[in-house]
Amino acid sequence: MVGATIVADPTTVHREAELAWSGVTGRISYLGPVRGPARPGDLVGAGRLVLPGLVNAHTHAGMSLLRGYSNEEPLHRWLERVRAFEVRMTRADIRAGLRLSLVEMIRSGTVAFADMYLWDSGLLADVHDAGLRVLAATAVFGYDAVAYPAASPQTGAQVLDGTPALAAEFAGDELVQVTFGPHAPYTCGAQLMADVAGRAARHDLAVHIHLSETARELAESRERHGCSPIELAAWTGLLAGPVHIAHAVHPDDDDTARLAARGVTVAHCPVSNLKLGAGIAPVPQYLTRGVTVGLGTDSMASNNTADLFEEIKTAALVARGVAQDPTAVGAADALRMATQGGARAFGGRLSGRLAVGEPADLVLLDVTAAHATPMPDPVAHLAYGARGADVTDVVVAGRPLLVQGRLTTLDEDGIRDEANQRVARILGQAD
Ligand SMILES: [Zn+2]
After folding, report:
1. CA 115 to centroid of ligand 1, rounded, Å
2. What tens digit of pLDDT does each residue of 96-139 get?
3. Is residue 237 left, alpha or beta, with left meaning phi > 0 and alpha meaning psi from -120 to 50?
4. How many whole angstroms from 400 Cα to the centroid of ligand 1?
5. Where is the Amidohydrolase-related domain (predicted)?
6. What percent of the chain is modeled with pLDDT above 70?
7. Domains of the chain (ranges plus CATH)?
8. Helices and strands counted in the chain (H then E)
9. What span, in angstroms and rounded, lies between the C-alpha atoms of 12 and 20?
């Protein structure tokens, strides 16, 4: 691809540049000045801004059939409402929701997502076939809890037992990684968390968990365990290995130091946290004190889109509003979270930047529209002006998944129709 403005990372912008990659290795082979005219088959660079593929650090992609289902309730009530819908979802419903999310993520420039939900071989194969990268946490809500009764009879204990085999099945897969997924301390309890810590260490697997999402969760944890959810995770051994935590909106006094010292990655989900009235994570404090922060959309039931450009803008603006300081989180900080920050959760497989030797995971944006004109600062445009709908092309591991607005691996119309039909059936079932 020649002639584009390329944001290799938030502090490195190449203008009128060329980017090349190998379709065999899936890695970038050249990034620099234009070496010659475009060749047939090259992506069109003129009028395009190229950036590293975005990483969604926290999703429940299989939940997208719940988009817009519960809109005005606090987390504990929202969980009850969502639960009433979820128990009716068959595996085919969850698969339809997952595939709808895959369409939306590709269309809005996401190349990788860290997810927690029902996962099995077939669902992981769906992600592989679509061409996206996934860090898939197999969700557990307690030893005896059957999380998705209409979709799978498995109890939490059975899911925990089966997770290492599922991870081993995809061990050689470039796109798929499997982790343990204890949902949260308030559903799983300390004993299960300690058990997961041991299993993760034995099988060399990471853990993805929700921690300290609401003030109520923090208060209940103090009452029940005498400490914060993050301290409880440390006490159970869960922070000893690679762990990725969603939210961390309400850290206790020493929690930030704990997260930094243990190399924990945090998925900041500003839109979900604002929509559920959960609070605002102290992101400037995290960044200043060396905590790795990525950006996540959380589920479609608490967002309602998978467009990471909304998270980038919101993350920057809300931090400034809270701090009453326009430098609290800069455009480069916000873009870095959505790329390099989230990539860290993938355990070194991704860097979230464009450079020779790195995976060819990239996104092209149309910057010819009125809302992108003029564009004196490409990084500021990405943070404050760009939208998912501006994405024209997406490449993952050297494979084009979106070419000039056309999906190459998924039947979008069919997926949308199926999603609508399935939602109508679920909502038609008696409460
Ligand atoms: Zn979540």
Report:
1. 8
2. 999 999 999 999 999 999 999 999 999 999 999 999 999 999 99
3. left
4. 29
5. 49-399
6. 100
7. 2-52+352-407 (2.30.40.10), 54-346 (3.20.20.140)
8. 15, 16
9. 17
